[in-house]
Design brief:
By secondary structure, this protein is α+β, with helices and mostly antiparallel strands. It is 21% helix and 34% strand. The chain contains four helices and 14 strands. A hairpin with a 2-residue loop joins β7 and β8 (147-155).
Length: 247
Amino acid sequence: MHAPHLFEGISRLKRAVAITTLVAAAIAITLISTATASSKQAAAGTIAVTERTLVLSYRDGNDIMRELQVRPTLTGTFSGTEVSLAHNVTHPDSAGAERSIVDRQLQELKAATARYHSIEQAIAAGYLPPGGQMPPPSATCVTGPTGNMGYHFENHALMTDGVINLTEPEVLLYERMPNGTFKLTAVEYYMQANQTTTAPVILGQTFLGPMPPHHPGMTVHYDRHVWLWKDNPNGLYDNWNPTISCP
């Protein structure tokens, strides 16, 4: 659903839910009135009908998938055959606003890659620098025009399987610290150009490419960086990060 039609859709939804809850309330009131028909005093009480939370997914003006959670409710009072009803739609989330699907996906990605702060765990999972030499030669620290990328640790199996999985990035990026340790800074998604007819999309971002191989053994490919573990003044998805140091 596109943003311009979102509120029209919600209005229609409200009307549909209102009809359903109104019928349910009317039936309940009828049953109560029938059960108390022999009483000298007419039945009276309150009405509260809460529907399940409804999740609306749509693309905003920046082509980013978003979620809007709403919960329709029906409240009111009745006395005898007189009924007063009020229908409302509320946001169940505490912020009372739209929640970006991408934000949720980024948290999932963080949870999945947190263990790779340990370079040993990254290597055990199949992530290695080009050529497999540890520590990687200083010359393999990738530099660029508006910043650097740092050291790439590539998972050959993931780079050649033709599948893009949110929680299994094909490449991990590290920065070498002054004490010689490696700090996880970013992830990179990668797909060989001969395995797709169009540029893939992840986190609402279209991959860059096709681009030539960066070193022997790599093919023409598409890729997309995500600076998940270190802020990038150039932007979360930019190739280059001016805060990354290379020797």
